[in-house]
Design brief:
By secondary structure, this protein is α/β, with parallel strands linked by helices. The protein has helices spanning 13-23, 35-46, 62-76, 99-127, 146-166, 189-201, and strands at 4-7, 28-32, 52-56, 81-84, 130-137, 171-178, 210-212. It contains six helices and seven strands; from the N terminus they run βαβαβαβαβαβαβ.
Length: 218
C-alpha cells in the first residue's frame, strides 16, 4: 500500500486517523495550514516509524492544495486513501454570519473536499481502487448551527455524487458523521478513527457510504 493523505491534521480526529493508518504500515502525508499543527501531527505519528511527509497548505487555496497533493503522490505514490478532515466548526444562528463568513465556511467544509476529490479520484478510478473519506457531522440540521448544518448536508450530497461517478471504478467514497464535540469532554478520537480504517478495508460488496459515530458503552 502506498499511503494515506490526511487533510486537516489537528489534535483530534486528524491525528487519531493518522496514527490508526500508520499502525497498519501506510506511509502518511499530513496537510494542514499551520506549521504548529503539522509538528504536533508528526510527533503523533513518529513512533510508528512509517514514512512521513508534512505539507503546509490551506484547503481553500487551490494552487497550494493541488501542489501538496501532487507532492504527496510524487513522494509516496498515488494514495490508497485520502481523508478530508478540514472544517470550520462553530455555533451560529440564522442571520448571525455575513455573506463572507458563510462563503468561508462553505469553502473549507465543502469546496476543499470537492477540489481534493477532483484532483485525486480520477487517478484512483483509473487504477481501479482507492478510498476517499470526509469527516461529516450534524446528522440532523440544527438552528444553532446553521452554517455547519448546511455544510455537512453538502458533504452528504458530495459523497453521493462521488459514488455515482467513481464507485463502479473501485473508488469507495464515504463520510464519518460525528454528532458532537471531540476531546476530553466529548467523543474519543481514537474510537472515531476506527471507522476510517473499517471503511477503507471494507469489501466492495459491503461498502457503507456514511457511518454515524456513537460512543461506546463502558
Amino acid at each position: 500500500m502506498s499511503g494515506a493523505v490526511i487533510i486537516g491534521a489537528g489534535p483530534g480526529i486528524g491525528q487519531a486517523v493518522a496514527r490508526r493508518f500508520a499502525r497498519e504500515g501506510l506511509a502518511i502525508t499530513l496537510i494542514a495550514r499551520s506549521d504548529k499543527t503539522l509538528r504536533a501531527g508528526a510527533e503523533a505519528v513518529a513512533a510508528t516509524g512509517v514514512p512521513l511527509l508534512t505539507l503546509t497548505a490551506d484547503s481553500t487555496d487551490e494552487r497550494a492544495l493541488r501542489s501538496a497533493l501532487d507532492e504527496a503522490t510524487d513522494r509516496h505514490g498515488l494514495p490508497d486513501v485520502v481523508v478530508y478532515n478540514a472544517a470550520i466548526v462553530r455555533a451560529d444562528r440564522l442571520g448571525d454570519l455575513s455573506v463572507r463568513d458563510h462563503l468561508n465556511s462553505w469553502a473549507v467544509n465543502v469546496v476543499g473536499a470537492v477540489l481534493t476529490a477532483a484532483h485525486v479520484l480520477p487517478a484512483m478510478a483509473a487504477r481501479g481502487s482507492g478510498t476517499f473519506l470526509i469527516t461529516g457531522g450534524m446528522p440532523q440540521p440544527e438552528p444553532d448551527h446553521v452554517s455547519l448544518s448546511l455544510s455537512k448536508a453538502g458533504v452528504r450530497a458530495l459523497i453521493t455524487l462521488l459514488d455515482t461517478q467513481f464507485g463502479a471504478s473501485g473508488v469507495h467514497a464515504a463520510s464519518i458523521t460525528v454528532p458532537g464535540e471531540v476531546g476530553p469532554t466529548g467523543f474519543d478520537p481514537d474510537e472515531i478513527a476506527e471507522h476510517y480504517w473499517r471503511l477503507h478495508t471494507q469489501p466492495r460488496p459491503n461498502w457503507d457510504h456514511e457511518i454515524i459515530h456513537a460512543a461506546r458503552s463502558h
